[in-house]
Predict the 3D structure of the following.
Amino acid sequence: VIIWHVQMLIIFLGCIMNRKGFISTAALYSFFLVFCMLLILIMTTYTNNRVNYKIVKIDAKKWAYDNSSLKNRYFSTPDNPIIIPPDGPSNPDNPSPSPEPGNPDTPVFSIEGYKTILINNGGGNTTYDSAINYIKGKSIPTFSTVATTNEGMFAANDNQGTSYYFRGAVNNNWVKYGKDSSNNDIYWRIIRINGDNSIRMIYSGTTNPTAESSVVNSNGVFMQTTTTGIGTTKFNSSSNRAEYVGYMYTINSQHGYQTSSLIKNSVDNWFKNTTLNGDTNVVDNVFCNDRNLPKGTWNSIPTNKIEYGPRKRFLDSLIPSLNCENNQDRFTKSTTIGNGKLIYPVGLITADEVSLAGSYRLSNNKTFYLYTGYSYYTMSPNLVKKYSSGSIISYVFIMTEEGNMPNYSVTSTAYIRPVINLNGNVKLSGTGTYDNVYEVVK
């Protein structure tokens, strides 16, 4: 079209020139008038073609979305908030960009993962604020009894703010994240949302969950296997001093960390060979090895017995705590929130967290999500006792194959279930059930 207009312009110039090769003033005015008209015609044609091209492009993208199989896979509901970006004729000059160039079918997971989890457990509420108000409004559970049904989430304070924890036979706290040294997918159970909104998770093996392993089977027990642990170990090699209840310890110090425990070495060696090592989504948070004494005086070699904070809470107040009282017992990588003594951001569950989840110290409970059918260590000190024979035994809390937490020596052999904290701002797909586990959206 443009070439044709230029050719017509050349012919016109030839027509208005006089015999001497000069152009008259009247002819010159006529030339500019015709030139302006041609310019307007050219620009109008170009603009119309550009608009038509955009309309065709928008129609093609809309057709691709309407006929895509992904439209049926991803949808927006209050419990699984997924938003597909609008890109239609209502705003053709500034369409919303697709998450992946050239792929308008890719969904956008629009809210932070910790909010997704809370909304999914917010009693049917569809917004974050209403969900946490519902959870905070629930009555504090009775911790002197076990939780054998799905009680959902509850609120409690930790060192960083308000934490939201799962309790009972919950079935929607599954996460798949990371790979082990053999390139197997790692599965986790969410323990709680920490006060800084990070997501605390406990290792649950490398086998995808099934209907039997997700809640409770017909016999009233979880069908878990040894794959819910990374192996077995003793907590420490000796038990005849009070220091040996320490995740790290220093001889003749109540809160020392000169030497790593056997179980810490096992956890660290596992972690460093997984894809979690160096993963920026695995964040630092407090792992509490509570060595405080509510009563009495600490001695490396006690004259009778020493009872640590977790034990006294279970015997006296019957209310577990997520606050770690002494900064020296807050095991972290950073000194901002703890002692800064960890090499890797990984630790173990506490006895208080097990109690919040539905256990009671001497009562069996095979029907809550932390039960596996195998004994595994927590990192909570229990007591140190001197017997009449003169022997001294240090105890930490172990979750047993019966689903209770009696006294176990630090030289007992039990399974290891590492705990990590996932950045709460990651976007999550799924609903957390065994057949639709949460996964981080890249």
Observations:
- Residues 25-66 form the longest helix (42 residues).
- The chain is about 25% helix and 20% strand.
- The mean pLDDT is 83.
